[in-house]
Every structure is written in C-alpha cells, then in structure tokens.
Write a structure and sequence with these properties.
The structure holds two protein chains of two kinds. Chain A is an alpha/beta fold. Chain A has nine helices and 18 strands. About 7% of the residues of chain A have low confidence. Chain B is 28% helix and 28% strand. Chain B has a nine-stranded mixed β-sheet with strand order 11-10-9-12-8-1-6-7-13, sandwiched between helices. A two-stranded antiparallel sheet of chain B has the order 2-5. Chain B has a two-stranded antiparallel ribbon with strand order 3-4. The chains are: A alpha/beta, B alpha/beta.
Chain lengths: 347, 264
C-alpha cells in the first residue's frame, strides 16, 4: 500500500497561509518515521517560486500546479486540476486545511477519488494498529474517533489544532525571485525537496469566478481590546446584551464580542463575531458568557491569556478551555459581580 | 423551477448528550429533544424566498433518517415546502455523509431539480460534507458557505457570495442546475404559519425505503467509508477551575482572581 501523505497548501495573494505549515507538521507526525513520504501540492496561476521556497523550507517535494484558470480559487477548476494528479499517485492521506475553501472542495474531491472523508480533524491516534482521527461533535461536548476503511482518505485539518513546527515560523514574507537568491542562504541544498511543475489547461464550464469581496470595515475595538466580554446564544435574549456591555464597562480597554449564533439572531452585528468565520482574538482576558464552546468559536479565541466562562450548563465545552468557570445564570450572576465591584470601587 | 431542500433531524445539542456503554454511539435517553438542524432552516427559508420571487416554483424537502425524522420533513412542510420526501432508514445507526449523499443522490438523479439547497453542516456531527458530496454525485456545480444568493431568472445561472475567514467573501456564478449550502445568518427563518400547519396535517409524505433507494443508485455503494472507533467526553484541555460556593461567593472569588491577575 502507498504510504504517501499529500498536503494541499492554501495560498492567498501569492503567499502560503500559516495553516499550511500546521498541516505539514500534522502530516509529519502522521507519517511518523516515514516522514519522507510527505509531499506538498500548491495550485495557482504562477506558483513555481513559491513552490521552490516551500521545498527549501520543508525539505519536502512540492508539486506546483499552474494554469490561468487557477488564478483564483474555483471549486470546479480545483477539482479538475487536482483529481487526476492525486489519483495518479494515490496517497494514503490527503491533508487539506479545514478552512472555507478547503471545506468547499474536500468532500467533492473524496467522492471523485473514491476516498473516505473526515473533516474538522483535531488530532490523530494510533491504537491497536488502528489510526483514527479525533473531531468534536455536538458543539464540542463529545469527541469522536473515526477511522477510514478505504486506501485513500481526505482529511480536513482544523486550523490551530496542530502547532506548526517552530522552524517554519519567522518566514512571513514572500521570498524574492529565486534567481536573486544567494545559494549560501540555504545551508544544505541537499535537504531541499524536488519541485515538479505541472500545467493545467482546464477551464471551468459551470462555475465562473467573479472575484473577492473585502471584509466590511474592521472593528478595531476587538483587535485592540485587553478584555473581551463575549455573548453566546445562552444569554437567552437580545436585551441581556446590556449585562454583557455593563460587565465590559468594568474594564478600561474592553470590547464586546459574540459567537456566530448571536449574529445570526440579529442581536449583534457580524463585526463583533469571534471565531473561525469571524475575528481571531488574543486578549489578556476573555469572558465567555452563555457560549457553548463549539470548535468554530474556540478556534478564534484560544490564544487569549486568561479565559473565564459563565454558563448554566456544567457540561458546556467552553469549560474545557476556561481557566476559571462559573456555572450560573449570567442574568443573575453579572448583576452580583457589578454590585460587588461597585462596593470595591471599581466602577 | 424545481428546488430540493435537504433537511436533517438532530438531537438538541444544548441538552444532555450521553454515550452508549459500548462507546460507539450517542445514547438517546427518554425525553430527548429532536428538531430540524438549524442550518437547514436557513436553506428552507432561502427556498421559500425564491418561490416568492418566482411563483410556480416547487419546493421539495428531503430527509434521510429513521422513523422519527418524518417530523422534521413535516416541519419543512409547515414552513411552506410543497412536498416532503422521507428516505426511511430502518435503524438508528449513524450514517456517514457519503451514505446520506448517495441516498439523496439516488432519489434526486432523474428528477431534474434546478437548485438543491442545504445547510452548511449539521449541528450534531458537524461534518459539512453531504452538500458538496451530493453535488459531485449528481454532477452539479456547487458552492458552500453561501451568504448571498442572486437569481435573476429561474433558469440560467445563480450568483452567490461565499463566506471566507475574517469576514471576506468570494463571488461566483454557477450554471443551473446547481447545489448551494447556505451559511447561517443568510436570512431569518420564518416560523410555520397556522395555515401551513393545518394544511400539512393531512398531507402524506413520500416515503422511500432506504434499501430500495440504494438499489436505484448508479453505483454499488453506499457502503460506509469511515467507521466510528469510539466516542468520549473530551478531557479538559486546561486545569480549569469551576468556582465553588454560593453566587455571591463566586462573584467575590471572580473579582479576587481578576485583581490578583491585575486584570481589573
């Protein structure tokens, strides 16, 4: 059986996104002693230079998939370009970032390859000769270990779940053209991976790319705040946001955040949203009020230095990441905190 | 035009969720609350809005699930779908996304749906796979995490915006027939109206035995491609501390912690 592991790089504006390095670390760990079996594929209009950099940085072989139609992500073109190249080598695992784009094409790719598909992978485990993958279900209340029963498996690996190897950090800028590089910059050219360039001629027939739409005006409050008090569906009603705002008012550089559910209910604007599809934040203090703790939310706030969770459900997943947990109804508990803080002269 | 909406019945994730003694499946205790996957409510609502724009549009709602899932198909009818299809699974075994996509694909294959809508994922297993898998099985183009749908004509093409990380979006035009999975927040799903509830009381669902549907599938599958090794309650990631005591004592302790850490 083929033991190769393929990592599909995620690029944006001609740069390799950090999640790609996390995937490489994940793939290396999954390969164990056989880490030479890991190789990378990068798709885009012109990705040769980037592929060479990746090969140097990682020592892994890189397949650069180039074509005009690959200028921007497009599910149809991605499928048409990737599938035959992957099918020809039949890697055992195909690692794709569990990002909006990764999740868009991974399941279809699995169907076309006849592969198993496991998404939102956080970890893997070898037990009794079975390699299984861990993922969260039911808003993080339960962890599922799931194993493929096919020769080829597509994995979507959750960003932030697997730490990138430290040696990849600190290379944030795209390198200059390869011709301009000094050879001695790379101490050991023998360790560099091989770059294979493949041209893609396929043009999409059914999906036309119309372009990228930038995010609405950034709310700097969230990024700059030392303290974020966040609301989840568990606050029960939009009126209860007043308690969240007043709790935030206790701190000098504070902001109000929320989970996706709160935006969906129309209680707060999307610019307040913390999580995978919202903002990623890392304040000194994060107070999660009525937030269940789905991985999508935790991915956006796990970097916070101190986390306090207030929730009526003692089994809520948010308590797993909290430094201090309070099992209370926030509509009665926050007033108590405010009252005591007033007595202590904090407000 | 003809629209198919895929809906799933899920166990209320906010309730108590138990694991069977074997550790292989979710234990459904007495009084367990089942309801329509919230993400699918957005898909149903989106279909209803398209029908409001193009009268004469027909909306079918389909669900593959055990007997109890009929309730969720009915919910789609109560919201306003025209016809409900229940692919009946004979047991409680948790099907993989590929199995479900194959079953729905076998049903939808020759029925010329112009548009198939689904929620971005299910609240229970959170795989986000059935939609794009179904599209691939049917040969439809697809877009996931859709936050905006523009349909100038009931045939031709649909323009969509998908949500990316950090609030960015990317726009595509898909030739119909196509499949879209909608992101939550694309609309505000309506509550069933009394008139729809009354109308659908006597309405029969189209019931299809799952074994029959798979025989009609154009491939020898669906055999599952993954299996659940076990389920477990996650171990705490941090040495988290649940504050003990009465509410005032907890409030006092909380303020003390914040002071000690110079956060106040």
């Amino acid at each position: 059986m083929n033991n190769e592991i393929l990592v599909i790089a995620e690029l944006s504006d001609g740069r390799v996104l950090p999640v790609t390095y996390e995937l490489i670390a994940f793939a290396r760990a999954l390969a164990g002693d056989d880490s030479a079996a890991v190789y990378i594929m990068a798709a885009g209009r012109e990705v040769q230079a980037l592929a060479r950099d990746l090969a140097h940085e990682t020592g892994m072989d890189v397949v650069a998939l180039e074509g005009d139609a690959l200028d921007h992500y497009n599910a149809e073109t991605w499928m048409a370009a990737l599938t035959p190249r992957i099918a020809a080598r039949k890697p055992r695992y195909i690692c794709i970032p569990h990002t909006s784009r990764g999740c868009d094409f991974a399941p279809g790719l699995a169907v076309r390859l006849g592969a198993a598909c496991i998404t939102a992978v956080e970890d893997f485990r070898r037990l009794n000769g079975i390699v299984s993958f861990a993922r969260s279900i039911y808003n993080g209340k339960i962890r599922m270990h799931i194993a493929p029963q096919t020769d080829v498996t597509v994995l979507c690996v959750l960003p932030g779940a697997f730490k990138a190897a430290t040696e990849y950090e600190g290379i944030p800028d795209p390198s200059p053209l390869p011709g301009m590089k000094q050879d001695e910059y790379f101490q050991d050219p023998g360790s560099s991976g091989h770059v294979e360039v493949l041209k893609n001629q396929d043009r999409p027939q059914k999906i036309r790319t119309l372009g990228l739409i930038p995010a609405a005006a950034q709310d700097l409050d969230l990024a700059l705040a030392d303290v974020i008090v966040s609301a989840g569906r568990g606050i029960g009603a939009g009126e209860n946001l007043e308690w969240i705002r007043r709790l935030a008012g206790l701190f000098s550089k504070s902001a109000v955040g929320c989970s996706r559910a709160v935006c969906d209910l129309g209680w707060l604007d999307h610019k307040h949203q913390v999580g995978l599809t919202g903002r990623s934040v890392a304040p000194k203090l994060y107070i999660a009020c009525g937030i269940s703790g789905a991985v999508q939310h935790i991915a956006g706030m796990r970097g916070s230095r101190f986390i306090i969770a207030i929730n009526t459900d003692p089994r809520a997943a948010i308590f797993q990441v909290a430094d201090a947990g309070i099992v209370e109804d926030l509509t009665t508990f926050i007033p108590l905190v405010l009252e005591q803080a007033r007595d202590l002269d904090y407000s | 035009m003809k629209i198919l909406v895929c809906v799933k019945q899920v166990l209320e994730p906010e309730g108590v969720i138990g694991i069977s003694a074997s550790g292989e499946r979710i234990e459904v205790g007495p009084g367990a609350l089942f309801r329509m996957n919230r993400y699918d409510e957005f898909a149903v609502e989106e279909a209803l809005r398209i029908r409001e724009k193009f009268p004469g549009t027909r909306i079918d709602a389909v669900s593959a699930g055990p007997e109890r899932a009929a309730r969720t198909v009915r919910r789609a009818l109560e919201m306003g779908a025209d016809q409900g299809i229940h692919i009946v699974l004979g047991d409680e075994r948790c099907r993989t996304p590929f199995e479900i996509a194959s079953l729905i694909g076998a049903y939808a294959r020759d029925r010329q749906y112009d548009l198939i809508l689904a929620g971005i994922m299910a609240e229970d297993d959170m795989q986000a796979q059935v939609g794009p898998m179904l599209a691939e099985i049917l040969g439809y183009p697809w877009a996931t995490a859709v936050m905006s749908i523009r349909l100038p004509h009931p045939s031709g093409a649909v323009q969509v915006e998908r949500e990316l990380e950090g609030g960015r979006r990317e726009a595509f035009e898909l030739t119909l027939p196509a499949l879209l999975t909608v992101q939550s927040g694309i609309n505000r799903p309506r509550y069933p109206s009394l008139s729809h509830v009354l109308r659908t009381r006597s309405q029969a669902l189209i019931q299809i035995d799952a074994s029959q549907a798979s025989a009609a599938a154009p491939f020898s599958l669906p055999a599952p491609r993954e299996w659940i090794v076990n389920l477990e309650e996650p171990a705490p990631l941090k040495t988290g501390m649940i504050l003990p005591g009465s509410p005032p004592e907890k409030a006092e302790k909380l303020l003390q912690i914040l002071q000690e850490r110079a956060l106040l």
